[in-house]
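=== RUN LOG ===
request id: a7f3
mode: sequence -> structure
chains: 1
length: 510
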Amino acid sequence: MAELAERWGAPYRWLVTLAAMIGTIATILSATIVNVALPQVMGAFGIGQDHAQLISTAFLAAVTGTMLLNGWLVDTFGCRLTYAAAILMFVVGSVISGSAPNEGVLIAGRVLQGAAAGMVQPLGMQIIFQVFPAEKRGSAMGLFAVGVVLAPALGPTLGGVIVDGFGWRAVFFMGVPFALLGLALGLVFMPGPARDGVRRRFDGPGFALLVTALLALLTGLASGQREGWESDRVVMELGLAAVAGVGFVLWELRTDAPMLNPRLFAVRGFACSAAVGLVYGAGLFGSTYLIPLFVQTIQGFSPTRAGLLLMPAGLAMVVVFPIAGRLADRFTPPAPITAGLLLFGVSMWLMSGVGTDTPFWTFAIWILIGRVGFGLAMPSMNAGGLRALPAKWVGQGSGAINFARQFGGAMGVNLLSIHLERRTQFHGQALTATQEGGAATRELLREVERLLAGNGIDEVTRQAMAQDYLGQMIFSQASMLAFRDTFLLVVITCLAALVPVAIMRWGGAK
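=== RESULT ===
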C-alpha cells in the first residue's frame, strides 16, 4: 500500500476508497433491488412464497457465511485478489440469476451473489483504516456510509423502474456495470498481500460446519410448509442444522483460530448488542421483503410505485445516520437503541392496520418512522457492543455483530414468510366457513352470474366463474389479514428486543 500511495500521491486514499465503495454499492444493490420483482418471478415460475422467499434468504445466508472469511482472505491473498475474485463471482452470479430457466438455478445464482457480497462489504472499512490517518477517518467513513446507505434506499425504486421497463430478469444485471467499474479500479488501486507478518490459518472445519448449519436450517424451514413439519425430510434437515450448529460452537471454542469466537458472547454488553442486532436484521430485511409484496399483491401497485414507496424512508436513513453517530458519542447505548426500537415498533404497529385502501403517502410515512428508528439504533448498537469488549477482541467483535445482523435478516425473511403463509391459510379457512349458506354470499353469486349471463356465457360456466370469483375475494381478504398479523409479529419481536437493552442499562453500558 505504501508503494501505491507513493506512486499515485495524495489522491490515492480517495481513489482506493472509491474502488471499494463502488464494489460495495453493486453488491448491496442486489440485496434489495430484487424484492420488487418477486411477484413477477413467482408468476413466471409458478412458485409460492415458500420458494420465493429463498430468493432473498439465499442471498442473505450466503453473505452471513462468507463475511467471516474476509479476514483470512485478506491476510492470505491481499485486498486486490480478494476483491477481484469476489467481484467476478458476483458478475457470474448475476448472469446466472438473470438467465435462470427455473427457480433452482435462480437461487444458486443468488447464493453466488451473496457469497461475493459477504467478501466485499467488510473491505471498505479495512481500506479506510489503512489509508486514512485517525483524524480523517470520520470524514472518509461518512462519505462511504452515504454511498452504502443510498444503495438499498434507491435499490427498490430502480428495481421497480427496470421491472416495468425491461422485465424482472433485468434487475439481476443492474449491479454488473458498477461491479465491472469497481473491478477495474480495484485492480489498479487495491493493495496486494503484505510481504511479512503471520498468516492466519483457515478454519476449514468451522466454515464447513457453519455452511452446513445455515443450508440445512433454511432448507428445512422452506420445506416445512410444503412437506409438513413432522415429515422425515424436514425433521432430518432441521436436526442436521442443530447438530452442525452445536458442532460449530464447540469447534470454535476449541480451535486457536476461530472464524467466530463464541467467547465474545460471554461479555454481557456485547451479547446484548448482538441480540439487538439479530432483531435489527430481521426487522429491516423482513419488512423490506414484506412491504413490496403487500402493495403489489394486495393493493395492485406496479413495481415502480412499490419501489417509490420505500424511497423516502431510505433517504431519511441517509440523513439520520450522521445525527445518530453523534448521539452515540454523547449518550450511553441503551437510550438511542430504545428510542429506535420504539419508533420501529410504532411503525410496524401502524402497518398492522393496513388495508387495501391505505393511501400511498400514509404508508410511506409509516415506513419512514420505522427507518428513522433503525437509523437511530444502529450506531449505538455497534459502538455499545464494541466498547464492552477488550481491545484484543474488537476486530472479531465487529465481524460478529455484522454476522448477527445478517443472520437475523436471513431468519427474519424466512420465518415471516412462513408465518404469512400459515396465517393466510388460517384466515382463508375461517372466511370460507362463514360463506356456507349465507344470504349475502348467495346474492353475490347470483349478481355475478347475472352479469356473466349478459355476455352470453352458458349456465355451467357462469356458476364455475362465480365460485372462482368468490374464491379470489376470500383469498385476497385472507392475505390482507395475514399481512396484518405478520406486521404485528414484528412488533412483538421488536418489543422483546427491549429486554437485552434493559440488561445493558442495568449493566451500566458505557
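=== NOTES ===
The chain has three domains: 1-202, 203-256, 261-510.
Residues 261-510 form a domain with the Growth Hormone; Chain: A; fold (CATH 1.20.1250.20).
=== END ===
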